[in-house]
Amino acid sequence: MSSSSSPSSSTKQPRIATAPPNLITVLLRKGGGFSTEIVRTMTELLTFKKMSSLVSITKEAYEAKLILFKAPKEWVDGDEVRMMFRAMLSTAESRWKMRIDTSLVETLMLGAKEWGNGDKANVVTDAWLTILEKKKFPNLISLCLNYCNITDASLSEVARGFTNLQSLNLTCCRNITDASVLEVARRCSNLQTLNLESCENITDASLLEVARGCSNIQSLNLAFCENITDVSVLELGRRCSNLQTLNLTCCRNITDASVLEVARRCSNLQTLNLCSCSNITDTSVMEVARGCPNLQSLDLFQCSNITDASVMEVAKGCSNLQTLDLWGCRNITSACKNALRQSHPQLELKD
Known about the structure:
The protein has 351 residues and is an alpha/beta fold. The chain has 16 helices and 15 strands. Helix 10 (178-187) links the parallel strand 8 and strand 9 (193-195). Helix 15 (308-317) packs parallel to helix 16 (334-343). The protein is elongated, with a radius of gyration of 30 Å.
């Protein structure tokens, strides 16, 4: 008699649904313990965005003191910097600040390098600068905020917190006024580079303080600061003898008086931009030729009062001259230009 299968053995039992192994459990739990070594490996393999999502949904990882990103000494990838700042601003609690290590950062590009990327930096407001704390950025000495939508309130706090700043770039920070630049000048005495291009509200008041408080300044960009006059530039010439680069583009109130002072006091000057300073004449340009032998670049674009006399003096006194812009200088003759090309074959002459 053939044996027959019992109901229990012949009937297919329903499969009990079980949850698939949890990635977090597999990776983060070994014998019930938390493996920081595995997490470290994960942070190296995953992108910041993926790892941050993983950490957010995992209790063990969320509560751990994990470093997801270590910023470099020169942190100048603006897109990356702004992405990390967004992460740190995304929650009121401080865990995300802990997960991004900025202790090595000396140079920070929160703004944009050029005008074409200005819209990206315009999202940066005062709220973003609350992340800039001395304990978070203990080694910060160079800060770029070009095109950022910030006000005096946050810039003043930066000045108070980072008194060792050596470089500050504020191109097109149009809400900035004398109030915060005064604070920078009074607090940041080690400043060597200050870029205020297109900060249209800046006047002599704050620049006088820059001259008094930042005597070691080497590079100063005041392009399109049209409220500037001889008063502050005279003081800069008298007190800031280490100036190497001075940009006065479209500072239309500037005259020979202040340029004479700069030429006589700033013998290390290498770059001078007087583009569209229509009041400049041969008088000050001749003094530049005599007093600034290391000059490499001179921009006299649309300085219509300049003549051959001062240009030839520049050619004689500035043997290292590499770039000379004479576009719109209608009193400069072809004979002068030809003589320049012969005497300075290395010269890039823009006319």
